[in-house]
């Protein structure tokens, strides 16, 4: 560190870089060890970063990169949507249902990109900016399953009527995208999700993850 640099800012940036390099977040103790500072310093750094939505802490206390990081660059969020759109468009047209990319924002799931099919007589209206709890809806449940690392999961989540009466959803988590927790899925008006939809959203999630790396 030179006289012209800020030690506190340097530590805060190091916290963000450490969190961006992990998919499962870090505890205060883990950050303290990696930074070589005491836990009180880490608590203060996290509290400041949380105020700016650059960091969030889950129910278990693990710190993760917040969506405020995306807002630092006005073009970043549109670029995420742009990267996901080809796979979402293909998914929507193939399945005949509304496709979406959903990211974690605190304790909620936030739809950041949505594509509706062009050839169906009707479909579920689902708009970017739509939020719902992580533990309700296929998009959030897929994210939670990936976070828990459940080995017996088929790789996707299915739900019915949790967010809208008569609507079913299927979603698969994004895997291997550093600093982002999210899922790709579809929502449709039906009593049961057709068998081929689950594997198809897994393929689409893989395509989106590849585009975001």
Automatic annotation (TrEMBL):
Entries under SUPFAM superfamilies matching the protein: GAF domain-like (SSF55781), Winged helix' DNA-binding domain (SSF46785)
Record domain IclR-ED: where: 68-213
Location of the HTH iclR-type domain: 6-67
Keywords noted in UniProt: DNA-binding, Transcription, Transcription regulation
Coiled coil: none
One Pfam family matching this protein: HTH_IclR
GO BP terms, alphabetized: negative regulation of DNA-templated transcription
GO MF annotation: an example: DNA binding
Protein name: Putative differentiation regulon
